[in-house]
Amino acid sequence: MRVRLLPGAGLVIRTGPLLAVCADGGAQTDALVALVREIAAEAGDAAGSVLIARLAGRLGSDGPDCAVAALGENPAVLVRGGAVAVADARQGTVELRGPILQFRTIDGPLSTLRLSLPGSGMPDPRTSLEAGVVSGAGLEAQLEQPVEPARPEAPASRAMVPARRPDRAVPFEAVILLPGYAPDPGPAPEPPQPATQALVEGVLCRDDHFNDPDQRYCQICGISMAQLTQVSRLGPRPPLGVLLLDDGSTLRLDTDYVVGRDPDVDDDVAAQRANPMRITGPASGVSRRHVRVRLEGWHVAVVDLNSANGTLLHRPGAARPEQLTPGVPAVITPGTRIDLGPRWFRYESHRNT
User: Fold this and answer.
1) At 247, phi and psi to the nearest 5?
2) Is the model's pLDDT at 348 over the cut of 50?
3) 199: which strand partners?
4) From the CB of residue 176, how many other CB atoms can be counted at a distance below 10 Å?
5) What is the average pLDDT across 193-198?
6) To bridge 13 with a disulfide, which of 20, 149, 189, 277 should be the other Cys (CB 3.0-4.6 Å)?
7) Which is nearest to 337 in space by CA: 312, 304, 320, 317?
8) Nearest Cα to 296, choosing from 215, 227, 219, 200?
9) Any idea where the FHA domain is (predicted)?
């Protein structure tokens, strides 16, 4: 793999399976470089998606612009701020942009990768970064394995299809087909009924978007609602955001979730009053049914379900995590991270808080 530099202000990092670029933000950038090196040193046989998830869990949403890629099995990329990541892979071209911290696993192998900061120049063909930290505003990596287009499967040969031979032991039965005389198949099965959408008290903006009455701006079009006569009414609750798991998977937050190693054992999941959010892979310290994410009106709450090892909340801006009391709901805001032993997920939303 050859890594060429993009000229500009910032730092370019290559260490182990990680490639990164970050804006020069003094002490915060020094801490970011140290964290990237630490994650790379602990990589072992971990897949790229796992390394990026570890980095995202410790990086936080505030700080210098940065883009990071983890190569190898299940490659993944992460961006924050004005940084951009573009990868050419089996699934096509994947592009990831800030400004919020986000990451994604890529269906590899990769053929090219570009990480860049605002104002980066064209790649310098004379450069090739083997390892270390150098000045630059981005990188362009050409990987050794090119992406081959998927080849259509060849049709099965006729010679491979066994000939259908009649069974001479079965007596011959003649059947006459007449139009309109087909046997009655019986009543058609009823289509499955869609789940009932929760109704909540809300208000409409000038363009008829349904909103939380406590919001100052419409969450769809952004118009100010201060000048409107807010008459509340019942309406279907829109999704309140997403749950982002540490392996990169995302679930839309439009219903309750039970989270754990085996959430299907929960009575509410069995009765379809909640959806399961199953923790797969390394799950030491995660109970079968560990925590419930509950939607209460326009609010999101989490409840520890008497888990064996407890649940921690990392609220945005808080100096230290908060231990949940089993069975007691705790309302959370966007950006809150929920730790279940070594695993975590985060509540994200565009809604104002």
Assistant:
1) -95, 5
2) yes
3) 236
4) 5
5) 54
6) 20
7) 312
8) 200
9) 257-314
